[in-house]
Hints:
The protein is α/β, with parallel strands linked by helices. Helix content is 41%, strand content 35%. The longest helix has 16 residues, at 57-72.
Amino acid sequence: MEITTTTSPTDASGEIRLTGRFDAHETNDFRSALEAMLVDDVHTISVSLSNVRFIDSTALAELVRGMKRCREHGGDLILLDPSDPVRVILELTRLDVAFTVS
């Protein structure tokens, strides 16, 4: 999986773009990227899932953990444009209700 990050210090927001498989082998890299943004005072983080072709339960749990961390800092974790396979998993697990998905 490839992870790309961008931040906007003016509004304390950032984006993490994921490409490929998001599974148990990739969660540590995702967590590191998210935590680095929180350390830099980025509180609202959008996660682009348009290029993720597979997501497993460990990755879903990591997204939930990330959402909680962002909310602890007064922000939120927003899921952007999930691919069809990811959208189906979000709907089946009802996580599409817990997250802001756009």
